[in-house]
Fold:
Amino acid sequence: MGQIIDISQFNNVTDFSKVKQKVEAVIIRLGYRACLTGKITTDLLFEKHLAGCKANAIPFSLYFVTTAINILEARQEAMFVANAAKKYMNEYPLPVFVDTETVKVNGCEGRSNGLEPSLRTCIIQEFCNTLQSQGVPAGIYAGANWLNNKLQMSRLPFSVWCADYSGALDYKGSYVLWQYTSTGEIDGIKGHVDISKRYSSNEVVPTPVQPSSTESDNIKSVLAIMSKEVGYLEKKSGDIKYLYSKTANAGSGNYTKYGAEMHAVYPKTMDYPAPWCDAWFDWCIYQVFGKRAPEVLRGQFDDYTINSAAYYKKAGAWTLTPKAGYQIFLNDSKGNICHTGAVMFVDTKFVYTYEGNTSGASGVVANGGGVAKKSYPLNYYRIAGYGIPNYNFVRSINTTNTTNTANTANTTNTTNTTNTTEPCNKDYAGIYSVIASSLNLRTGAGKSNPIIVAIPKGAKVTNYGFYMMDGEDVWLHVTFGKQVGYCSKKYLSK
Structure:
């Protein structure tokens, strides 16, 4: 097989006609998420490199450098990549790759460098699944050490592009590309360039994988997300520009990113603004499981703690014995459930928790306005009990129909896992004014969907980044008063 090179703004390509004579294909960097600011950015030379390959009929694919820290960001990145791939490419000689690696800027660690393997694997799963749900073949680029130690590759049945410059590839799994040097030389390129060897199907015997996640994997992923949220403070207003800051605009208005996003996902039972301890727990579960999170919660998204407890009880998933990952329910002084959180770990005397809408003060603090770590004696009289989420639920990473067995319920559910979550683009998030004389709020994306209400010109709607496509048109998932639905973006202005 021939040589394959990858190029970005750091490569000086002077003559694509000469490059064509030396390579089988080119993998072009489409862009990256900035490792400090988190902004999705197009590679400065992407358009030039794209034009050079097309003008010289050089087969090409794309890659994108991720620094996503949760599945919403992974989905956002993947939709950015998918939209470009579908626009620019007619055929895919190779998959479109997500590049995951250690990133530093001026000695500063990148925002995703410290992710633990289970969470990082969830993020790469989500990226690849989202890409393939859009009809774009997905692959993973990483160094051999990264593949061996920082990803759970048994859960990632996607094409692998492995980097290893030692002269002998130290990755034992299957792969389609080996990037064996970063100091290659190719006619038509000034300076060094990465070079990879492509392997045909008869050169590499793929390692069969059964994509799944264990109960332990799932609990670790959820608790890792909860840990990162400690310190977040409730906002005094719903101003979007402050909603995703941990501490800015702090106040007692019950405005949080958790309530906003869960209301956008499930407006029927997730009020906003509203007390948000349960919304926080649901949001953390949603980061790992997407819209299938209600199956993990034994019912549905609900910001009323009594209802959430009732779902666990009805499912026979209620206990007085805590365990890491369980949902703790706490009573008020009259013995009524008033607050909830997550069990972090348990020792012989105490249960330790992560909680939303609380404070670091001792005892039960409902409506405390922040995310904090807490602890209670195991025999504390205000502990009502514990809900047992269905962490045995297997997170399929296929894009086809798969059979999923929930062990605790001893039932088998066949579910289509393709495109289970709405695309999210935080650039769309904000407060919009209606610029049409009247704008229909609809139940879905597209004019064929029923009208909920007509919104008058000048009225305000709010979007939290969620959207759907109808052909080439973007339809934003918005709130208008207590109504939630879809509006065409072309008739809205920030």
